[in-house]
Amino acid sequence: MKNTLFTPYNMNGISLENRFLMAPMTRSRASQPGDVPNKLMAEYYGQRASAGIIITEATQVSMQGMGYAKTPGIYTQEQIDGWRLVTDEVHKKGSKIFLQLWHVGRVSSSKVNGLQPIAPSAKIAKETTVYIFDGSPNGDATFVPVEEPREMTQEDINQVIEEFRIGAKNAIEAGFDGVEIHGANGYLIDQFLRSNSNERTDNYGGSKENRVCILTKITEAVAKEVGTEKTGVRLSPFISFKDMTDPEILETIQIAAKKLERIGVTYIHLCEADWADAPEIPNDFRVQLRENFSKTIIATGNKTPEQANDLLGNNSVDLVGFGRKFLTNPDYPKRVELNAEMNEISDNHTLFGGGTARGYTDYPFLNEGK
To answer: Could you give one GO CC term from the UniProt record (predicted)?
Structure first.
């Protein structure tokens, strides 16, 4: 089969040199105080600019939306200026970059941000933790259980919609080519989408159509602010960790896809399960999604290049994202092209490293002879 990963692609006016997408990965290197992107982060993203497009790590739209320590924000001028270091470096290297807009909802603790979490309903996420850096001798993150959230009022909902809009506006000011609304992985928007975490009886709960409402309103606000061609949405229909099992989620996602088609967003990004015995995505789901959404479809989830080419070859998706392999191989497309040996994670303790270059920007390129 032709290696379609190396085929140029046009995503609603954004020309990409290849179909390799660097998937969003939380790395917790933002500077303190203020959760500010920095030169180290600019180096990290710049190293990986051989991707056709980069989607950044999840970036909170407010202090309330923060769930883990040292993750970056996009709601202060200092954060905007910090992100400009990143976008300048990536653009200098010839890649495109979108910022992922994030609100964690109930997946948080007052030990992270000093605030009680908020959520569609006052239901704690069972067996779910977040992490802080509490001064442990080796610098590791310490995991703590999430706390019971407060049910959001209409005022809270209005506030969150506005925070996403402002976050998108700030991202464009920071030089990003677009934004991705994080509606996946058990965070706030996903909590509204699922019947087990959303027990509301107002316009934002009850029916599947109502549960899609906040995603629709956030997306409309963001698209109006920055343009539909600069707006994407991430969804995770087959991922249920963080206490998110919902028998209705596949139907709900298809309803959401129709809403996103109407709004005209540039892509839907499917975050797919990536563990060894994860469920396969049924082909009929992909076919139905294609029928409901006509723009770019992205898939991520620890795909191999062979799996990626299969998905691209049968028109199931248009772009494929790679996370762990880009983490350890800044020149991942080149290594795939040459069938070269891959770097592996040197130390799991550095995945959320709290601020150092070790296990972050020190993975070698092929031409470094290591």
So the answer is: cytosol
Domain boundaries, the chain: 4-350
In this predicted structure, the answer to whether residue 369 has a pLDDT above a threshold of 60 is: no
Helix axis angle for 249-263 and 213-226, nearest 10°, is 30
Long-range contacts of 358-367 (CB under 8 A, 24+ apart): 360/27, 360/29, 360/40, 360/44, 361/40, 361/43, 361/44, 361/47, 363/327, 363/328, 363/329, 363/330, 365/47, 365/330, 365/331, 366/331, 366/334, 366/335, 366/338, 366/340
User: From CA 337, how far away is CA 295, in angstroms rounded?
Assistant: 27
Going by C-alpha positions, the residue among 183, 286, 193, 195 that lies closest to residue 247 is: 195
Query: Which pTM does this prediction carry?
Result: 0.97
Render pLDDT for 301-338 as a digit per residue (tens, 0 to 9). Answer: 989 999 999 999 999 999 999 999 999 999 999 999 99
Q: Measure the CA angle with vertex 216, ends 214 and 218; round to 5°.
A: 65
- Give CA–CA dist 55/39, Å, rounded: 18
What tokens were used for 321? 């994202």
- 74 by Cβ neighbours in 10 Å (0-12 / 13-18 / 19+) ranks as buried
Q: Give the closest residue to 103 by CA, choosing from 72, 59, 68.
A: 59
Give strand ranges (E) for 121-237. 129-132, 142-145, 150-151, 178-182, 231-235
Q: Pull the structure tokens for residue 117.
A: 């979490």
Active site amino acids:
187
For helices 283-292 and 249-263, what crossing angle results, to 10°? 30
Inter-residue contact 79 to 35 (CB < 8 Å) = yes
Residue 147 and residue 105 in contact, taking contact as beta carbons nearer than 8 Å: no
